Description:
- The chain is α/β, with parallel strands linked by helices.
- The protein has 4 domains: 4-165, Rossmann fold; 183-295, Transcription Regulator spoIIAA, CATH 3.30.750; 326-415, Transcription Regulator spoIIAA (2-Layer Sandwich); 420-474, CATH 2.40.50.140.
- It contains 14 helices and 20 strands.
- It has helices at residues 18-34, 50-65, 89-100, 103-108, 124-133, 149-159, 204-208, 216-228, 254-262, 282-289, 307-313, 319-332, 351-364, 391-415, and strands spanning 4-6, 41-46, 69-70, 79-84, 113-118, 139-141, 162-165, 186-190, 192-193, 212-213, 233-237, 269-273, 297-299, 337-344, 368-373, 420-428, 434-439, 444-448, 457-465, 470-474.
- Helix 1 (18-34) packs parallel to helix 6 (149-159), helix 10 (282-289) runs parallel beside helix 12 and helix 13 packs parallel to helix 14.
- The chain starts with a strand and ends with a strand.
Amino acid sequence: xxxxxxxxxxxxxxxxxxxxxxxxxxxxxxxxxxxxxxxxxxxxxxxxxxxxxxxxxxxxxxxxxxxxxxxxxxxxxxxxxxxxxxxxxxxxxxxxxxxxxxxxxxxxxxxxxxxxxxxxxxxxxxxxxxxxxxxxxxxxxxxxxxxxxxxxxxxxxxxxxxxxxxxxxxxxxxxxxxxxxxxxxxxxxxxxxxxxxxxxxxxxxxxxxxxxxxxxxxxxxxxxxxxxxxxxxxxxxxxxxxxxxxxxxxxxxxxxxxxxxxxxxxxxxxxxxxxxxxxxxxxxxxxxxxxxxxxxxxxxxxxxxxxxxxxxxxxxxxxxxxxxxxxxxxxxxxxxxxxxxxxxxxxxxxxxxxxxxxxxxxxxxxxxxxxxxxxxxxxxxxxxxxxxxxxxxxxxxxxxxxxxxxxxxxxxxxxxxxxxxxxxxxxxxxxxxxxxxxxxxxxxxxxxxxxxxxxxxxxxxxxxxxxxxxxxxxxxx
Length: 477
Protein backbone atom coordinates (compact mmCIF):
# COMPACT_ATOMS: atom_id res chain seq x y z
CA UNK A 1 0.00 0.00 0.00
CA UNK A 2 1.30 3.44 -0.94
CA UNK A 3 2.16 6.15 1.56
CA UNK A 4 -0.06 9.16 2.13
CA UNK A 5 1.55 12.59 2.22
CA UNK A 6 -0.22 14.65 4.89
CA UNK A 7 0.06 18.21 3.61
CA UNK A 8 0.16 20.92 6.25
CA UNK A 9 -2.61 23.51 6.31
CA UNK A 10 -2.01 26.20 3.73
CA UNK A 11 -2.19 29.93 4.33
CA UNK A 12 -5.56 30.82 2.89
CA UNK A 13 -6.13 33.60 0.37
CA UNK A 14 -9.20 35.30 -1.03
CA UNK A 15 -8.39 34.78 -4.70
CA UNK A 16 -7.45 31.94 -7.02
CA UNK A 17 -3.84 33.08 -7.10
CA UNK A 18 -1.20 32.96 -9.80
CA UNK A 19 0.56 30.05 -8.06
CA UNK A 20 -2.40 27.79 -8.76
CA UNK A 21 -2.41 28.90 -12.40
CA UNK A 22 1.28 27.95 -12.59
CA UNK A 23 0.49 24.52 -11.18
CA UNK A 24 -2.15 24.07 -13.90
CA UNK A 25 0.49 24.91 -16.51
CA UNK A 26 2.78 22.27 -15.01
CA UNK A 27 -0.06 19.72 -14.98
CA UNK A 28 -0.70 20.52 -18.65
CA UNK A 29 2.93 19.71 -19.50
CA UNK A 30 2.87 16.48 -17.49
CA UNK A 31 -0.38 15.31 -19.07
CA UNK A 32 0.99 15.82 -22.58
CA UNK A 33 3.31 12.92 -21.75
CA UNK A 34 0.95 10.80 -19.63
CA UNK A 35 -2.19 11.05 -21.79
CA UNK A 36 -3.39 7.93 -23.59
CA UNK A 37 -5.15 9.71 -26.44
CA UNK A 38 -4.92 12.91 -28.39
CA UNK A 39 -6.00 14.93 -25.33
CA UNK A 40 -5.88 14.16 -21.62
CA UNK A 41 -9.32 12.90 -20.60
CA UNK A 42 -11.11 13.45 -17.28
CA UNK A 43 -14.17 11.68 -15.92
CA UNK A 44 -15.93 13.64 -13.14
CA UNK A 45 -18.91 12.14 -11.32
CA UNK A 46 -20.78 14.30 -8.83
CA UNK A 47 -23.15 12.97 -6.17
CA UNK A 48 -25.66 14.87 -4.07
CA UNK A 49 -26.90 18.43 -4.02
CA UNK A 50 -26.67 21.34 -6.43
CA UNK A 51 -23.86 22.83 -4.34
CA UNK A 52 -21.80 19.75 -5.16
CA UNK A 53 -22.69 20.24 -8.82
CA UNK A 54 -21.45 23.84 -8.61
CA UNK A 55 -18.22 22.62 -6.99
CA UNK A 56 -17.82 20.09 -9.79
CA UNK A 57 -18.14 22.88 -12.36
CA UNK A 58 -15.22 24.67 -10.72
CA UNK A 59 -13.11 21.52 -10.73
CA UNK A 60 -13.90 21.11 -14.43
CA UNK A 61 -12.94 24.75 -14.98
CA UNK A 62 -9.51 24.14 -13.50
CA UNK A 63 -9.02 20.89 -15.44
CA UNK A 64 -10.02 22.64 -18.68
CA UNK A 65 -7.23 25.15 -18.10
CA UNK A 66 -4.85 22.18 -17.82
CA UNK A 67 -5.93 20.90 -21.25
CA UNK A 68 -8.38 18.17 -20.20
CA UNK A 69 -11.45 17.19 -22.15
CA UNK A 70 -14.33 15.33 -20.51
CA UNK A 71 -16.08 12.03 -21.16
CA UNK A 72 -19.11 10.52 -19.47
CA UNK A 73 -17.50 7.10 -18.88
CA UNK A 74 -14.29 6.31 -16.97
CA UNK A 75 -12.88 3.74 -19.42
CA UNK A 76 -10.61 6.13 -21.37
CA UNK A 77 -9.96 8.63 -18.59
CA UNK A 78 -6.48 9.66 -17.49
CA UNK A 79 -8.02 11.29 -14.42
CA UNK A 80 -11.09 10.02 -12.55
CA UNK A 81 -12.71 12.00 -9.75
CA UNK A 82 -15.73 11.27 -7.58
CA UNK A 83 -17.17 14.41 -6.00
CA UNK A 84 -18.95 12.95 -2.99
CA UNK A 85 -22.01 13.61 -0.81
CA UNK A 86 -22.31 12.78 2.90
CA UNK A 87 -25.97 13.59 3.51
CA UNK A 88 -27.37 10.10 2.93
CA UNK A 89 -25.93 6.65 3.64
CA UNK A 90 -27.09 5.44 0.23
CA UNK A 91 -24.94 8.05 -1.52
CA UNK A 92 -21.89 6.97 0.48
CA UNK A 93 -22.49 3.30 -0.33
CA UNK A 94 -22.65 4.13 -4.04
CA UNK A 95 -19.30 5.91 -3.84
CA UNK A 96 -17.61 2.93 -2.18
CA UNK A 97 -19.12 0.58 -4.74
CA UNK A 98 -18.07 2.70 -7.71
CA UNK A 99 -14.55 3.23 -6.39
CA UNK A 100 -14.22 -0.52 -5.83
CA UNK A 101 -15.27 -1.13 -9.43
CA UNK A 102 -12.23 0.87 -10.64
CA UNK A 103 -9.69 -1.63 -9.32
CA UNK A 104 -9.43 -3.53 -12.60
CA UNK A 105 -9.25 -0.32 -14.64
CA UNK A 106 -6.35 0.89 -12.49
CA UNK A 107 -4.60 -2.46 -12.93
CA UNK A 108 -5.04 -2.20 -16.71
CA UNK A 109 -3.95 1.47 -16.86
CA UNK A 110 -1.58 2.13 -13.91
CA UNK A 111 -1.03 5.79 -14.87
CA UNK A 112 -4.73 6.62 -14.42
CA UNK A 113 -5.07 8.87 -11.37
CA UNK A 114 -8.14 8.20 -9.21
CA UNK A 115 -9.27 10.93 -6.83
CA UNK A 116 -12.07 11.66 -4.37
CA UNK A 117 -13.23 15.00 -3.02
CA UNK A 118 -16.27 16.59 -1.45
CA UNK A 119 -18.25 16.21 1.74
CA UNK A 120 -17.50 12.55 2.44
CA UNK A 121 -13.80 13.32 2.48
CA UNK A 122 -14.23 15.82 5.33
CA UNK A 123 -15.19 12.95 7.63
CA UNK A 124 -12.16 11.32 9.24
CA UNK A 125 -13.68 7.84 9.45
CA UNK A 126 -14.48 7.93 5.73
CA UNK A 127 -11.03 9.22 4.75
CA UNK A 128 -9.45 6.53 6.93
CA UNK A 129 -11.51 3.87 5.19
CA UNK A 130 -10.35 5.16 1.83
CA UNK A 131 -6.76 4.93 3.04
CA UNK A 132 -7.10 1.34 4.23
CA UNK A 133 -9.43 -0.19 1.65
CA UNK A 134 -8.56 1.55 -1.62
CA UNK A 135 -4.78 1.80 -2.04
CA UNK A 136 -5.17 2.69 -5.73
CA UNK A 137 -6.89 6.02 -4.86
CA UNK A 138 -4.10 8.57 -5.29
CA UNK A 139 -5.71 11.87 -4.26
CA UNK A 140 -8.19 12.71 -1.51
CA UNK A 141 -9.25 16.24 -0.53
CA UNK A 142 -12.15 17.85 1.29
CA UNK A 143 -14.54 20.69 0.53
CA UNK A 144 -12.29 23.35 2.05
CA UNK A 145 -9.28 22.50 -0.12
CA UNK A 146 -10.79 22.89 -3.58
CA UNK A 147 -8.95 26.17 -4.24
CA UNK A 148 -5.69 24.20 -3.87
CA UNK A 149 -6.75 21.47 -6.31
CA UNK A 150 -4.14 22.37 -8.99
CA UNK A 151 -1.32 22.08 -6.44
CA UNK A 152 -2.69 18.83 -5.03
CA UNK A 153 -3.05 17.38 -8.52
CA UNK A 154 0.51 18.36 -9.40
CA UNK A 155 1.92 16.80 -6.21
CA UNK A 156 -0.05 13.61 -6.82
CA UNK A 157 1.22 13.32 -10.40
CA UNK A 158 4.86 14.02 -9.54
CA UNK A 159 5.48 12.57 -6.06
CA UNK A 160 4.49 8.97 -6.75
CA UNK A 161 2.75 9.03 -3.39
CA UNK A 162 -0.83 9.39 -2.33
CA UNK A 163 -1.87 12.94 -1.45
CA UNK A 164 -4.41 13.57 1.28
CA UNK A 165 -5.75 16.91 2.55
CA UNK A 166 -8.62 17.83 4.82
CA UNK A 167 -8.10 21.56 5.24
CA UNK A 168 -11.00 22.37 7.59
CA UNK A 169 -10.40 26.11 7.24
CA UNK A 170 -13.77 27.80 6.74
CA UNK A 171 -12.73 31.35 7.60
CA UNK A 172 -12.50 32.57 4.00
CA UNK A 173 -14.15 32.23 0.63
CA UNK A 174 -11.82 31.70 -2.28
CA UNK A 175 -12.94 33.61 -5.35
CA UNK A 176 -11.72 33.61 -8.93
CA UNK A 177 -11.76 29.85 -9.49
CA UNK A 178 -12.48 29.18 -13.20
CA UNK A 179 -15.85 27.57 -14.03
CA UNK A 180 -16.88 25.17 -16.79
CA UNK A 181 -20.67 24.99 -16.53
CA UNK A 182 -22.45 21.76 -17.37
CA UNK A 183 -25.30 23.37 -19.31
CA UNK A 184 -26.19 26.48 -21.24
CA UNK A 185 -29.82 26.98 -20.14
CA UNK A 186 -29.85 26.26 -16.40
CA UNK A 187 -27.07 27.48 -14.16
CA UNK A 188 -26.04 27.39 -10.49
CA UNK A 189 -24.80 30.45 -8.60
CA UNK A 190 -23.51 29.84 -5.06
CA UNK A 191 -24.10 32.84 -2.79
CA UNK A 192 -22.84 31.34 0.48
CA UNK A 193 -21.24 28.26 1.96
CA UNK A 194 -21.60 26.33 5.19
CA UNK A 195 -24.32 26.24 7.83
CA UNK A 196 -24.74 27.42 11.43
CA UNK A 197 -27.98 25.61 12.24
CA UNK A 198 -26.73 22.22 13.48
CA UNK A 199 -29.95 20.33 12.97
CA UNK A 200 -29.37 17.16 14.99
CA UNK A 201 -29.71 14.83 11.99
CA UNK A 202 -27.49 16.81 9.58
CA UNK A 203 -23.80 16.36 8.83
CA UNK A 204 -23.51 19.48 6.65
CA UNK A 205 -22.11 21.93 9.27
CA UNK A 206 -19.36 19.43 10.05
CA UNK A 207 -18.30 18.91 6.43
CA UNK A 208 -19.09 22.33 4.93
CA UNK A 209 -18.14 24.47 7.91
CA UNK A 210 -19.70 27.63 9.29
CA UNK A 211 -21.80 30.06 7.28
CA UNK A 212 -19.91 32.55 5.15
CA UNK A 213 -21.51 34.72 2.49
CA UNK A 214 -19.99 35.84 -0.78
CA UNK A 215 -19.73 39.58 -1.30
CA UNK A 216 -22.83 41.04 -2.95
CA UNK A 217 -20.93 42.74 -5.78
CA UNK A 218 -19.22 39.48 -6.74
CA UNK A 219 -22.58 37.70 -6.88
CA UNK A 220 -24.15 40.49 -8.95
CA UNK A 221 -21.23 40.38 -11.39
CA UNK A 222 -21.54 36.61 -11.82
CA UNK A 223 -25.33 36.90 -12.25
CA UNK A 224 -24.89 39.53 -14.98
CA UNK A 225 -22.34 37.34 -16.75
CA UNK A 226 -24.71 34.36 -16.69
CA UNK A 227 -27.64 36.42 -17.97
CA UNK A 228 -25.50 37.93 -20.73
CA UNK A 229 -24.31 34.42 -21.65
CA UNK A 230 -27.94 33.39 -22.21
CA UNK A 231 -28.76 31.40 -19.06
CA UNK A 232 -32.53 31.34 -18.63
CA UNK A 233 -32.94 29.56 -15.29
CA UNK A 234 -30.49 30.64 -12.58
CA UNK A 235 -30.57 29.09 -9.11
CA UNK A 236 -28.91 30.80 -6.15
CA UNK A 237 -27.36 28.20 -3.84
CA UNK A 238 -26.68 28.00 -0.13
CA UNK A 239 -27.36 25.62 2.73
CA UNK A 240 -29.62 28.31 4.14
CA UNK A 241 -29.96 31.18 1.68
CA UNK A 242 -32.36 33.01 4.00
CA UNK A 243 -29.48 33.79 6.36
CA UNK A 244 -27.34 35.28 3.58
CA UNK A 245 -25.37 38.37 4.56
CA UNK A 246 -25.25 37.93 8.32
CA UNK A 247 -21.45 37.83 8.34
CA UNK A 248 -20.99 40.68 5.85
CA UNK A 249 -20.01 44.18 6.97
CA UNK A 250 -22.73 45.91 4.94
CA UNK A 251 -25.45 43.74 6.50
CA UNK A 252 -27.29 43.11 3.23
CA UNK A 253 -30.20 40.67 3.58
CA UNK A 254 -31.18 37.88 1.22
CA UNK A 255 -34.32 39.76 0.24
CA UNK A 256 -32.20 42.79 -0.69
CA UNK A 257 -29.79 40.62 -2.68
CA UNK A 258 -32.43 38.95 -4.81
CA UNK A 259 -34.16 42.28 -5.41
CA UNK A 260 -30.91 43.66 -6.87
CA UNK A 261 -30.48 40.59 -9.07
CA UNK A 262 -34.12 40.84 -10.15
CA UNK A 263 -33.42 44.42 -11.28
CA UNK A 264 -30.90 43.15 -13.87
CA UNK A 265 -32.43 43.37 -17.34
CA UNK A 266 -32.87 40.15 -19.27
CA UNK A 267 -35.13 37.23 -20.11
CA UNK A 268 -34.61 34.77 -17.27
CA UNK A 269 -36.03 33.15 -14.16
CA UNK A 270 -34.32 33.36 -10.79
CA UNK A 271 -34.67 30.56 -8.25
CA UNK A 272 -33.03 29.79 -4.93
CA UNK A 273 -32.49 26.95 -2.51
CA UNK A 274 -32.49 25.96 0.22
CA UNK A 275 -34.58 28.12 2.56
CA UNK A 276 -34.80 27.57 6.31
CA UNK A 277 -38.21 28.40 7.81
CA UNK A 278 -36.72 30.10 10.87
CA UNK A 279 -35.16 32.79 8.65
CA UNK A 280 -37.91 33.14 6.05
CA UNK A 281 -39.29 36.66 6.40
CA UNK A 282 -42.34 38.50 5.14
CA UNK A 283 -39.90 40.86 3.44
CA UNK A 284 -38.56 37.95 1.36
CA UNK A 285 -42.04 36.83 0.36
CA UNK A 286 -43.04 40.39 -0.54
CA UNK A 287 -39.91 40.67 -2.70
CA UNK A 288 -40.86 37.51 -4.59
CA UNK A 289 -44.43 38.72 -5.05
CA UNK A 290 -43.29 42.07 -6.49
CA UNK A 291 -40.50 40.71 -8.70
CA UNK A 292 -40.18 40.42 -12.48
CA UNK A 293 -37.89 37.39 -12.68
CA UNK A 294 -38.08 35.45 -9.40
CA UNK A 295 -39.98 32.19 -9.84
CA UNK A 296 -43.23 31.69 -7.98
CA UNK A 297 -41.81 28.64 -6.29
CA UNK A 298 -40.82 28.42 -2.63
CA UNK A 299 -38.92 25.37 -1.42
CA UNK A 300 -39.30 25.49 2.36
CA UNK A 301 -38.32 22.27 4.19
CA UNK A 302 -40.50 21.56 7.22
CA UNK A 303 -39.09 18.05 7.98
CA UNK A 304 -41.82 17.18 10.53
CA UNK A 305 -45.28 18.38 11.47
CA UNK A 306 -44.75 17.53 15.14
CA UNK A 307 -43.49 20.27 17.47
CA UNK A 308 -41.93 17.65 19.72
CA UNK A 309 -39.92 16.17 16.86
CA UNK A 310 -39.00 19.62 15.51
CA UNK A 311 -37.51 20.45 18.90
CA UNK A 312 -35.54 17.19 18.89
CA UNK A 313 -34.32 18.10 15.40
CA UNK A 314 -33.17 21.55 16.66
CA UNK A 315 -35.09 23.30 13.89
CA UNK A 316 -35.89 26.53 15.84
CA UNK A 317 -39.47 26.89 14.64
CA UNK A 318 -42.77 25.16 15.38
CA UNK A 319 -45.72 24.08 13.30
CA UNK A 320 -47.59 27.38 13.86
CA UNK A 321 -44.59 29.43 12.70
CA UNK A 322 -44.24 27.30 9.60
CA UNK A 323 -47.91 27.58 8.70
CA UNK A 324 -47.81 31.36 9.25
CA UNK A 325 -45.05 31.64 6.61
CA UNK A 326 -46.85 29.34 4.19
CA UNK A 327 -50.19 31.13 4.54
CA UNK A 328 -48.52 34.52 4.07
CA UNK A 329 -46.86 33.22 0.89
CA UNK A 330 -50.17 31.88 -0.42
CA UNK A 331 -51.80 35.23 0.24
CA UNK A 332 -49.08 37.37 -1.36
CA UNK A 333 -47.74 35.27 -4.27
CA UNK A 334 -50.27 34.42 -6.94
CA UNK A 335 -50.31 30.68 -7.76
CA UNK A 336 -47.30 30.05 -5.54
CA UNK A 337 -45.87 26.53 -5.82
CA UNK A 338 -44.73 25.13 -2.46
CA UNK A 339 -42.32 22.22 -2.12
CA UNK A 340 -40.58 20.80 0.90
CA UNK A 341 -38.39 18.12 2.48
CA UNK A 342 -39.72 15.56 4.95
CA UNK A 343 -37.91 13.07 7.17
CA UNK A 344 -39.86 9.96 8.17
CA UNK A 345 -38.84 7.92 11.20
CA UNK A 346 -36.62 10.38 13.08
CA UNK A 347 -35.29 8.76 16.30
CA UNK A 348 -38.05 8.68 18.88
CA UNK A 349 -40.79 9.67 16.43
CA UNK A 350 -44.10 7.99 17.18
CA UNK A 351 -46.98 7.26 14.85
CA UNK A 352 -48.86 10.13 16.53
CA UNK A 353 -45.99 12.45 15.57
CA UNK A 354 -46.07 11.08 12.06
CA UNK A 355 -49.82 11.72 11.75
CA UNK A 356 -49.13 15.38 12.53
CA UNK A 357 -46.78 15.41 9.54
CA UNK A 358 -49.53 13.95 7.37
CA UNK A 359 -52.03 16.54 8.59
CA UNK A 360 -49.62 19.38 7.77
CA UNK A 361 -49.12 18.00 4.26
CA UNK A 362 -52.88 17.86 3.76
CA UNK A 363 -53.31 21.40 5.06
CA UNK A 364 -50.58 22.98 2.92
CA UNK A 365 -51.15 20.89 -0.24
CA UNK A 366 -47.58 20.93 -1.53
CA UNK A 367 -46.83 20.71 -5.24
CA UNK A 368 -44.23 18.04 -4.49
CA UNK A 369 -42.13 16.68 -1.64
CA UNK A 370 -38.64 15.31 -1.28
CA UNK A 371 -39.16 12.49 1.21
CA UNK A 372 -36.56 10.50 3.12
CA UNK A 373 -36.50 7.76 5.71
CA UNK A 374 -34.14 8.90 8.47
CA UNK A 375 -30.54 7.91 7.85
CA UNK A 376 -28.11 8.19 10.80
CA UNK A 377 -24.94 10.18 10.17
CA UNK A 378 -21.86 9.43 12.25
CA UNK A 379 -20.92 12.48 14.31
CA UNK A 380 -24.41 14.00 14.58
CA UNK A 381 -26.41 14.11 17.85
CA UNK A 382 -29.34 12.21 16.34
CA UNK A 383 -27.11 9.21 15.59
CA UNK A 384 -26.83 8.67 19.37
CA UNK A 385 -30.56 8.97 20.09
CA UNK A 386 -32.73 5.95 20.88
CA UNK A 387 -34.49 4.75 17.76
CA UNK A 388 -36.95 1.99 18.72
CA UNK A 389 -39.15 2.02 15.60
CA UNK A 390 -38.28 -0.78 13.15
CA UNK A 391 -37.19 -0.15 9.58
CA UNK A 392 -40.25 -2.06 8.38
CA UNK A 393 -42.58 0.22 10.33
CA UNK A 394 -40.84 3.33 9.02
CA UNK A 395 -41.20 2.02 5.47
CA UNK A 396 -44.92 1.54 6.10
CA UNK A 397 -45.26 5.18 7.26
CA UNK A 398 -43.23 6.29 4.26
CA UNK A 399 -45.59 4.56 1.85
CA UNK A 400 -48.57 6.14 3.61
CA UNK A 401 -46.99 9.59 3.18
CA UNK A 402 -46.29 9.00 -0.50
CA UNK A 403 -49.90 7.96 -1.08
CA UNK A 404 -51.18 11.15 0.56
CA UNK A 405 -48.83 13.39 -1.43
CA UNK A 406 -49.57 11.59 -4.69
CA UNK A 407 -53.27 12.32 -4.28
CA UNK A 408 -52.55 16.00 -3.55
CA UNK A 409 -50.16 16.36 -6.50
CA UNK A 410 -52.59 14.63 -8.83
CA UNK A 411 -55.39 16.97 -7.78
CA UNK A 412 -53.16 20.04 -8.25
CA UNK A 413 -52.03 18.93 -11.70
CA UNK A 414 -55.63 18.21 -12.73
CA UNK A 415 -56.64 21.75 -11.70
CA UNK A 416 -54.15 23.15 -14.24
CA UNK A 417 -55.78 21.48 -17.27
CA UNK A 418 -57.18 24.19 -19.53
CA UNK A 419 -54.80 26.87 -18.28
CA UNK A 420 -52.01 28.54 -20.24
CA UNK A 421 -48.58 28.28 -18.65
CA UNK A 422 -45.37 30.10 -19.46
CA UNK A 423 -42.66 27.46 -19.65
CA UNK A 424 -38.96 27.17 -20.35
CA UNK A 425 -38.22 24.48 -22.94
CA UNK A 426 -35.31 22.50 -21.48
CA UNK A 427 -34.51 19.26 -23.29
CA UNK A 428 -35.67 16.66 -25.79
CA UNK A 429 -37.50 13.62 -24.47
CA UNK A 430 -36.78 10.74 -26.81
CA UNK A 431 -38.76 10.57 -30.03
CA UNK A 432 -41.60 12.44 -31.70
CA UNK A 433 -40.26 15.95 -30.98
CA UNK A 434 -41.47 15.84 -27.37
CA UNK A 435 -39.73 18.49 -25.26
CA UNK A 436 -39.48 18.62 -21.49
CA UNK A 437 -40.41 22.09 -20.27
CA UNK A 438 -40.79 23.62 -16.82
CA UNK A 439 -43.11 26.19 -15.31
CA UNK A 440 -42.11 29.00 -12.97
CA UNK A 441 -43.56 26.83 -10.21
CA UNK A 442 -41.10 24.04 -11.12
CA UNK A 443 -43.68 21.68 -12.64
CA UNK A 444 -42.64 19.58 -15.65
CA UNK A 445 -44.70 20.00 -18.83
CA UNK A 446 -44.26 17.76 -21.87
CA UNK A 447 -45.04 19.42 -25.17
CA UNK A 448 -44.38 18.85 -28.85
CA UNK A 449 -42.06 21.54 -30.23
CA UNK A 450 -39.15 22.04 -32.64
CA UNK A 451 -35.79 21.29 -31.02
CA UNK A 452 -34.51 24.73 -32.01
CA UNK A 453 -36.89 26.25 -29.44
CA UNK A 454 -35.03 24.58 -26.57
CA UNK A 455 -33.74 27.31 -24.29
CA UNK A 456 -36.64 29.67 -24.98
CA UNK A 457 -39.72 30.68 -23.03
CA UNK A 458 -43.02 29.68 -24.62
CA UNK A 459 -46.70 29.55 -23.72
CA UNK A 460 -48.28 26.12 -23.48
CA UNK A 461 -51.95 25.22 -23.20
CA UNK A 462 -52.25 22.38 -20.65
CA UNK A 463 -54.31 19.50 -22.07
CA UNK A 464 -53.55 16.53 -19.77
CA UNK A 465 -52.40 15.94 -16.21
CA UNK A 466 -50.67 13.02 -14.53
CA UNK A 467 -49.70 12.62 -10.91
CA UNK A 468 -46.53 14.70 -11.24
CA UNK A 469 -46.32 16.14 -14.75
CA UNK A 470 -48.46 17.95 -17.26
CA UNK A 471 -48.86 17.64 -21.03
CA UNK A 472 -49.72 20.53 -23.28
CA UNK A 473 -49.74 22.10 -26.70
CA UNK A 474 -47.48 24.94 -27.80
CA UNK A 475 -49.44 28.12 -28.44
CA UNK A 476 -48.54 30.27 -31.39
CA UNK A 477 -47.96 33.96 -30.83
